[in-house]
């Protein structure tokens, strides 16, 4: 589960990580009130207005703007809220912005230059250890840095038995070229950041930029936080931060019905029982020249009600031009599934895409008979390849 920047910053702050302060706003009036409150608290007259969507690269897409007075806070917020923000990480249609973070301007001039660093915390899957990746080249496209100047990205691995040690935090501060107060503040920042990562059961922290202010404070200006879904049960407060508006709507509905559904780009809808068979089915569709429109595992109990629910979910995707049902009857009997398909088809009434059903296992022969004699626009197949070929034929 991903968090919005403002939620990620709240999480970091609760563990003592210094952040660029801000207040989230749903409309331009709230944004102005937020800016006034921040001015009272921090003395800043300038604010940054930041679109809150689950996508990076917002700055490049015009989703992060500096406001030098309250009129600008109002007009910029008005412009950003409701826009479809297109960034290098969104689709061409972009993501609708529902809220903005009004943040204090932290790039004020002072005794020293400001510097932008990159820092992330993640799991090194090769050896099962957490690692901190960091670079002096923050604020810009870290992918470009990784490609063209990979030696500018450092990695620090953490032994799970001892946790992050003091010397490691100092090494990071040193490699980032810091000294004096900024050095000391960076060691505190890194230690608090790592603790926040571990104790929140996160799977990714990406802070870009980490800023050294002109008065030598280290703070998180941005925060991308991904929480481990499997650990959410022990973080009720974080689980509540989920923003369903940011997620694929069909996936959200399928999840509520207990269906394992992942939306994909193709035109062949798939209904399968078991994740392994679903993967194999998608491979076969591709091999036969098609593209799966989704991954859908209906689970062990493929009864009429579930089949109907699955139909409805698949048909919500307008790209679907054919449906392939591939069910293995191990525990569930194929004739039951076949009857479920027929009942669902009749109940729904208005299915206008061809359906190919392949049922294998217990009572597969009876199931085939049921389908063939149903008088519906449903084709049966016994072999895997035969099913995929029939799909190609109806699409041609
Ligand atoms: P991203 O583009 O989605 O990664 O969003 P960021 O939160 O990283 O913001 C984009 C850029 O806005 C940053 O790299 C900064 O250069 C700039 N920015 C963020 N906060 C401030 C601020 O307080 N003042 C100024 N002048 N620029 C800021
Ligand atoms: Mn950023």
TrEMBL record:
* Residues noted as binding ATP in the record, renumbered to the chain: 50, 57-59, 106, 116
The pathway is: Carbohydrate metabolism; tricarboxylic acid cycle; succinate from succinyl-CoA (ligase route): step 1/1
Report a single Gene Ontology molecular function.
succinate-CoA ligase (ADP-forming) activity
Q: Which Pfam families match?
A: ATP-grasp_2, Ligase_CoA
The protein's superkingdom reads: Bacteria
Query: What PROSITE patterns has UniProt attached to this entry?
Result: ATP_GRASP, SUCCINYL_COA_LIG_3
Keyword match Transcription:
no
User: What does the cofactor field's note say?
Assistant: Binds 1 Mg(2+) ion per subunit.
Binding-site residues for Mg(2+), renumbered to this chain: 208, 222
Q: What class of enzyme is it?
A: ligase
Q: Which InterPro entries match?
A: ATP-grasp, ATP-grasp_succ-CoA_synth-type, ATP_grasp_subdomain_1, Succ-CoA_synthase_bsu_CS, SUCC_ACL_C, Succ_CoA_ligase-like_bsu, Succinyl-CoA_synth-like
List positions binding substrate.
273, 330-332
Which family, according to UniProt?
A: Belongs to the succinate/malate CoA ligase beta subunit family.
Give the record's subunit note.
Heterotetramer of two alpha and two beta subunits.
Tell me the HAMAP family matching this sequence: Succ_CoA_beta (MF_00558)
Q: What does this protein do?
A: Succinyl-CoA synthetase functions in the citric acid cycle (TCA), coupling the hydrolysis of succinyl-CoA to the synthesis of either ATP or GTP and thus represents the only step of substrate-level phosphorylation in the TCA. The beta subunit provides nucleotide specificity of the enzyme and binds the substrate succinate, while the binding sites for coenzyme A and phosphate are found in the alpha subunit.
**Which protein, by its recorded name, is this?**
Succinate--CoA ligase [ADP-forming] subunit beta
Its lineage reads: Bacteria, Pseudomonadati, Bacteroidota, Flavobacteriia, Flavobacteriales
């Amino acid at each position: 589960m991903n968090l919005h920047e403002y939620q990620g910053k709240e999480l970091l702050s609760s563990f003592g990580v210094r952040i660029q302060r801000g207040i989230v706003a749903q409309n331009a009036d709230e944004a102005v009130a937020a800016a006034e409150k921040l001015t009272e608290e921090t003395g800043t007259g300038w604010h940054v207005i930041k679109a809150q969507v689950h996508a990076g690269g917002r700055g490049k897409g015009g989703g992060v703007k500096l406001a030098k007075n309250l009129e600008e806070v109002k007009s910029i917020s008005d412009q950003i809220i409701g826009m479809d923000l297109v960034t290098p990480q969104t689709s061409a249609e972009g993501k609708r912005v529902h809220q903005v973070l009004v943040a204090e301007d932290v790039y004020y001039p002072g005794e020293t230059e400001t510097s932008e660093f990159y820092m992330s915390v993640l799991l090194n899957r090769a050896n099962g250890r957490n690692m901190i990746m960091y670079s002096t080249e923050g604020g810009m496209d870290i992918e470009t840095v990784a490609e063209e100047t990979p030696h500018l990205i450092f990695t620090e691995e953490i032994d799970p038995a001892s946790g992050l040690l003091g010397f490691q935090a100092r090494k990071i501060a040193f490699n980032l070229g810091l000294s004096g107060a900024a050095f000391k503040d960076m060691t505190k920042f890194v230690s608090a950041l790592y603790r926040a990562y571990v104790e929140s059961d996160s799977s990714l922290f990406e802070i870009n930029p980490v800023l050294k202010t002109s008065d030598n404070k280290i703070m998180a200006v941005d925060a991308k936080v991904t929480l481990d879904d499997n650990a959410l049960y022990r973080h009720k407060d974080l689980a509540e931060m989920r923003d369903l508006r940011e997620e694929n709507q069909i996936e959200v509905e399928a999840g509520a019905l207990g269906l394992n559904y992942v939306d994909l780009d193709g035109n062949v809808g798939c209904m399968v029982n078991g994740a392994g068979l679903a993967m194999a089915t998608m491979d076969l569709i591709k091999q036969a020249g098609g593209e799966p429109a989704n991954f859908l595992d209906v689970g062990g109990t493929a009864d009429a009600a579930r089949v109907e629910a699955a139909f409805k979910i698949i048909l919500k995707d307008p790209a679907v031009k054919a449906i392939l049902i591939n069910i293995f009857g191990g525990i569930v009997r194929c004739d039951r599934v076949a009857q479920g398909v027929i009942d669902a088809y009749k109940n729904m009434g208005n299915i206008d895409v061809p359906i190919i059903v392949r049922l294998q296992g217990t009572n597969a022969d009876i199931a085939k008979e049921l389908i063939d004699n149903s008088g519906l626009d449903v084709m049966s197949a016994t072999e895997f390849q035969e099913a995929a070929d029939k799909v190609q034929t109806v699409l041609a």
